[in-house]
Structures are given as C-alpha cells and as structure tokens.
Amino acid sequence: MGDTNLSAVLYAEDDMRLEEFPVKDPGPGEVQISMHSTGICGSDVHYWKHGRIGDFVLTTPMVLGHESSGTVCKVGSGVTSLKVGDRVAIEPGVPCRVCNYCKTGRYNLCREMQFCATPPYHGTLTRLYTHPADFCFKLPDNVSYEEGALLEPLSVGVHACRRAGVSLGSKVFICGAGPIGLVNMLTAKAMGASKVCISDISEGRLGVAKTMGADSIVLVNTKDAKAVAKQVETALGEMPDITIECSGAESSIQTGIYATKAGGVLMLVGLGPAEIKLPVVNAACREVDIRGLFRYANCYPAALEMIASGAVDVKPLITHHFTLEESLEAFETSRTGAGGAIKVMIKCAKQ
Amino acid sequence: MAARNLAAVLHGKDDLRLEEIAVPEPGENEVQLSMGSVGICGSDIKYWAYGQCGRFKLTDPMIIGHEGSGVVTKVGPGVKHLAVGDRVAIEPGVPCRTCELCKEGKYNLCPEVRFCATPPIDGNLSRFYVHAADFCFKLPDTLSMEEGAMVEPLAVCVYGCQRGGVTLGSRVLICGAGPVGIMAMMVAKALGASAVCITDIDNTRLSAARSLGADHVLKVTTGDCEALAGVIQDTLGCHPHVTLECSGSDQSLTTGIHATRPGGSVVLIGRGSMQPAIPIVLAATKEVDIKGVFRYANCYPKAISLLESGKVDVKPLITHRFNLMDSVKAFEAAKDRNSGAIKVMINC
C-alpha cells in the first residue's frame, strides 16, 4: 500500500481510520509542509468520542489534529517569508481577512474561520499538509519541532493572560493543572505574575505543577466552592487578582468567582456544560469581571519568543510519543491520562 | 464628447490633466464603481503644488483623489455584501491583510498598504474605478454622495479623537479650524466632550467653527505659546484633557503641550515640520503623551453612523462644487486662501 499521505481520519464518533488522503499542492501564498509533530488536544479527543463539540458537528470525514509543526517542502507563488527546508510551527486557524473581526485584530472571532480539525476543515495529523505561509512561523534552531507543536496550546495561555490583564505583581489563581492550566501558569509567570496558585483534583498533576513553578497548590476534594476559595486565599496569602479557570467544571468556576479579589478578573478558558449555576451577584457587586476566550489571535509570535528566549520550558509537558500509525493508542492515552499523560505527541513523518 | 472613463491624472507639479483611460474590471473580492463625488484634501493639493507630500514623492503620472463615494456598477467573484446599484463610501487604503500589523487590527500602518493617490497608487478621481469590496461601505439612503465622500476626512477625525481618548466630560483644544479641525470638533462633541475651544489665525474659519458648534473660538495673534496656553486655559476654565493638532503649525504643537493637562494627550493630525523644536521635557514630565495618527483603521462604520444618526452634519462644510472636467479649477479654489473654501467637492 502506498503511503504518500497517511492521515488520521475521523469518519464518525469512535470511528478513526488511518488511511491515504489526497495531498493539496500549495496555491498562491501557501506552503506545503512535511509534517513532523502533532500534539493531541482535549477537543480532538472529544470529536473522536462524541462526533461534535457544541454546534460544530462532524458530517463528513475529517482529518484530525491541529497542534503541529513540520518542514516546508513546497512553496506556492508569491511566498517570500518561507523557503523549502524551513522548520515551522503552524497556527491552525485561517480567517477570511476581510470582515470586521479580521480587520480589528480579533480574527479568532471571524465567522468564516477555517480551523484545522474543526468540522468540516481537515487537520494536521497527516504526512503532508498545505497552509497559508503567513500562518506558519519559522522556528529558530534552538526550538524543537515538539516545542513548535506546543505553541498552539501555549498561545491559548498567552491570549488568556492578556485578556485577563496579567502583569507585574499579579497574583494569579489557576483552576486545573492539565496542559492548559500549566501553560497558563508558565505564561503568567513570564508576564510578571509574582505568585501563582494552581488547583486540581489530582495529586499527581499538582506535583507536576509544583515542579514546573507553581508557588502554591490546592488539592480539591469538595464541591463547596466557598471552602475551596478560602483554601486558595490561605495558600496565596491573599485573594488573587486574577483567576484563570482551565477545567470547565461548574464548582471550579464558582470557586473562581468567590476566590477572586474585588475588581479582579475571572477568565473562562475551560469549557464544560453549556449552562451552569453561577453566583453572579457576588461577582457583579464586587466588580469581578467574567471574560471568556475563543482560541487566540496574534499570540504565536509572543509564544515563540517565550520558548526561544528560554523564558518558559514546555518540554516537561510532553510525556508520551506515538507514531502516526499508532494514533488510536495515542488518543486513548490522552483520553484516559494513563501513565500520567499530560501532552501526547504524535510523530507524523514516516518512521 | 463624453469619454468612457475620464480621469484626473497628475503628471507632475502643477500639471493636472483630464485624460481618457481604460475602464477597469473587478477581480476577486472587488467591485467596479461609477464614481459619485470626490473631495479634495490638503495632501492632494500638496502633490499638485509641490509634486510631493511629506516623505511621499510623485515620480510617475498618477490619478489623484482619495475622498470618494460611488455607485456599484459591477461585482467581482466572491463579493456577497454588495450588489449593483449600492451607493458606497470608499475607504481608500487597502492593506496586505497578512502581516502582523494587519492581523493586529492596525492595518493603516501596513507597510504594503495601497492607498489611493499616494504614489504610485492611482486615486479615484475618475468616472469608473475598481476597489476591494470590503473597503466599500454601503451608504444609508438618507446620506448623499457628497456626504459619502466626506466620510474619509471624518474618519480621520474619528481616529484622532479615539487616539486622544476624547470621551464624556472631555475638554478639548483643537488647533486649526479647517475642515479637519471643524469635523474633529463635531466628533468630539458627539463623543460627549463638554467643551471645545478652537484656535486659528483666520477670522472666516473661526466664525465657521463658531456657527458649527465650537464652544469657544480663539484667534491666534501671538508667537508666545505659553501665553496663548494661558489664554486657552482661561477660556476653557481649565487645562484641556486633549489637544487635537489639526493645523500643521509647529507653534500649535508647542501650544498644545503647554496647554494640555498633566496626564492628557496631544494628537498630531496636522502635518508640520519634520523636526520642530518642541518642549519635550515639559511634555514628558507632565505625562502629556504626544500621539501621531496615520490615516485611520476601522473608522468608516463609525463615521457613517455619526452621519446617519444626525449627530454630525458635514454638509455645511462643502463650500465649492465642480465637475470632473473642471478639476483644475477645483484644485485652484482649494489652494487659494481667499476663495473662502472649506471643502471643495468634485462631482464625477
């Protein structure tokens, strides 16, 4: 069987197949990339198991994966920023560029956004992938392909910390010590936060957070949000200015409101049930602003600088490696968190 | 004899010719327009009178004009929001859309921006013109084509007020009562500014400003900027929060620095000398921020809303009208300080 472009294709919920997929030649402004590393995200796992996320529903077969890096192997006309051989990280969402959201710098909100592995757009768990050159970021020699693939979740951290107003001296509480909680913690510290407290229901994950720089940790074993908020205040020595909620759990978001200092911000990064009960009067009367986020915009350059300069080290997040052929096992590992899995990386090149 | 596509082409200093050119066809995401009205801007006058404007020099023949409105006559592939017959205001600068500045929303600063009538890019003082569809904004039926052409300078004023942080309760000093100064005043008031003081050296312009809503007008008769700042403070009853420099006079910039309240802003909309001597230490130690503007970004919809709501009425600013064939006369009227012109409009 020929293997020019083996890809992990999702046909329906619980029906992922490894098969040959057509290769697209790069058009004007595009580059073709020989894929190297693709990380698995909770959203990829969710599409695999449920065939949908909210209003995004899988209706036709779709290649999975969106956290990627690779090597440019073909260059389309008009491309001057990249050449064959360049190692790049791929920012997976390509907006329309002409609408108001795009022109005001908030292209993440573009309604015509074509995002890898959000139906119906194909993702990057493939051997060869074609993408607009301006959404491919050249990796300096000291940044590995895997770190390049981590720029995607790291950008979520950058966007969250920017929207939350993290700055010098900020006291930040992060709910959830999974990969997103961890990249938020790293980013907050890189932006000058003086203290970060992180919470989770898993001792193992909290242990990793501690080694990666958390100033304090809180093990959550109750749904009493007010009680957990008190624990956070004790752990930090004061109420946090900013809470970045990365778990999506109702009780955790409630905790975020109670915990945050008056005048502060609660960032909702984690996504859970569509509707939850929230103590809004508590938030409103204390001017605790509740802000959401959707992916990121204009964050890749800053994320890349953080890694290239050594301001953050994301390598400890990568715990497991699989080949493209082993995608099913990779997804299962990511889904269960078996073996202390944090970020599972898939090698897309022919081994 | 009516030429199919007549255009006002600037060949060099003082050499504006009406010539027949090809009718352009719209490509992907473009529309073809039958031009309605095109206003003359100070920059157009500079290209005509001097062959250059600031750091931009005219080296080849170029169609002049960038403050335009038109009617859609053809729609290119991919265009969904416009149809033949739609009346639009044309935002003249089309950026690359792929660079960091574009993606951050600051497309006015895109190094590859193609701006009408900034060499070497042709302008839109012609009968037919093609433009990127997403930079053409539908005009409500209640606005005329001339008002559509005024959206461009109005957008400059919207952007300047935004950069200056003009808001409810602001007290604003505006230096220069030309079209930009007067429209900046209108925008400032629409934003909730509580008082606006306008300065100028010309009585006619000052009375126009007064009749169009300025709370205070001041004739500049001294070169003593600090003293003038004192008079402004007495007139307004306080130091202004924001100064919008709309005259291009170095003296006004210095006056603005003296007059503005600590923590305020001076916005440079007018273009003066490249390297004026200014009291920078004074500005710095008062935390008076000096902010430049380069055209505008994402201001056309706001400018159109202002006109549509009636909060701003720019019609009184249009003092002279000419046909396309009489473009040279139009430029002469715009340049002549004795013509009494505020905005000269050319109807295509």
Automatic annotation (TrEMBL), chain A:
Name the UniProt record assigns to this protein: Sorbitol dehydrogenase
BP GO annotations: sorbitol catabolic process
Species whose genome carries this gene: Lingula anatina (Brachiopod)
CDD domains: sorbitol_DH
Key words, A-Z: Metal-binding, NAD, Oxidoreductase, Zinc
PANTHER family xrefs: SORBITOL DEHYDROGENASE
Gene3D superfamilies the UniProt entry points to: Medium-chain alcohol dehydrogenases, catalytic domain, NAD(P)-binding Rossmann-like Domain
Similarity comment: Belongs to the zinc-containing alcohol dehydrogenase family.
Keyword presence, rRNA-binding: no
Gene that produces this protein: LOC106179884
Domain Enoyl reductase (ER) intervals: 12-346
Required co-factors: Zn(2+)
Keyword RNA-binding listed: no
Pfam families registered for this protein in UniProt: ADH_N (PF08240), ADH_zinc_N (PF00107)
Cited InterPro entries: ADH-like_C (IPR013149), ADH-like_N (IPR013154), ADH_Zn_CS (IPR002328), ER (IPR020843), GroES-like_sf (IPR011032), NAD(P)-bd_dom_sf (IPR036291), SDH-like (IPR045306)
Gene Ontology molecular function: L-iditol 2-dehydrogenase (NAD+) activity; zinc ion binding
From TrEMBL, chain B:
Domain of life: Eukaryota
Residue span(s) of domain Enoyl reductase (ER): 12-346
Cofactor(s) it depends on: Zn(2+)
SUPFAM superfamilies in the record: GroES-like, NAD(P)-binding Rossmann-fold domains
Record-linked SMART domains: PKS_ER (SM00829)
Gene Ontology MF: a single term: L-iditol 2-dehydrogenase (NAD+) activity
A Pfam family the protein falls into: ADH_zinc_N
Keyword annotations: Metal-binding, NAD, Oxidoreductase, Zinc
One record GO biological process: sorbitol catabolic process
PROSITE patterns according to UniProt: ADH_ZINC
Family recorded in the similarity comment: Belongs to the zinc-containing alcohol dehydrogenase family.
Descriptive protein name: Sorbitol dehydrogenase
Gene source species: Lingula anatina (Brachiopod)
Organism phylogeny: Eukaryota, Metazoa, Spiralia, Lophotrochozoa, Brachiopoda
The encoding gene: LOC106166968
